[in-house]
């Protein structure tokens, strides 16, 4: 009986601790937490890109610091790659083929659902946003 009470007490205490520390009020430590006041470009980035990309460090995908230099400021090709990386790689484009091989032949998730306007907002956010 004492053992059950001890286990139940530990469970209640850990649940309380978890709930208090994850209340959602502390968003300042995560730059990719969506907030009501964020720009549409940042919201699109948070919802579609931040799971794999960070500005300062590689994650599942490459870091985005210096991304415009790596793409020679070719935002048209960059947006085509975001929409469907496989198609750009298949076209024989050297940069994207090298990128594909550098990342162990991992294909970026396609985003055919993003409109041209949404892609423009993501790119504008990467250029001007506070990431």
CATH superfamily descriptor of the domain at 40-128: Cytochrome c-like domain
Radius of gyration: 20 Å
Report the CATH architecture of the domain at 40-128: Orthogonal Bundle
Strand content: under 5%
Please bin the fraction of helical residues: 40-55%
Sheet with most strands: none
Order of helices and strands: HHHHHHH
Distance between the termini: 53 Å
CATH class category label of the domain at 40-128: Mainly Alpha
DSSP summary, beta strand count:
0
Please tell me the overall pLDDT.
79
Dominant shape: globular
- Unreliable stretches: 2-30
- Compute the number of helices: 7
Oligomer: single chain
CATH topology call of the domain at 40-128: Cytochrome Bc1 Complex, Chain D, domain 2
Structural class: mainly alpha
General description of the model:
There is one protein chain. With 131 residues, the chain is an all-alpha fold. The chain has a domain at 40-128: Cytochrome Bc1 Complex, Chain D, domain 2 (Orthogonal Bundle), CATH 1.10.760.10. Helices cover 53% and strands 0% of the residues. It is built from seven helices and no strands. The chain has helices at residues 2-21, 40-48, 67-70, 75-83, 85-90, 94-102, 116-128. Helix 2 (40-48) crosses helix 7 (116-128) and helix 4 (75-83) packs across helix 7 (116-128). The chain is globular, with a radius of gyration of 20 Å. Residues 36-130 form the Cytochrome c domain. Pfam families: Cytochrom_C (PF00034). Residues 1-19 form the signal peptide. Keywords: Heme, Iron, Metal-binding, Signal.
Summarize the topology:
Elements: H1 2-21, H2 40-48, H3 67-70, H4 75-83, H5 85-90, H6 94-102, H7 116-128
Helix pairs in contact: 2-7, 4-7
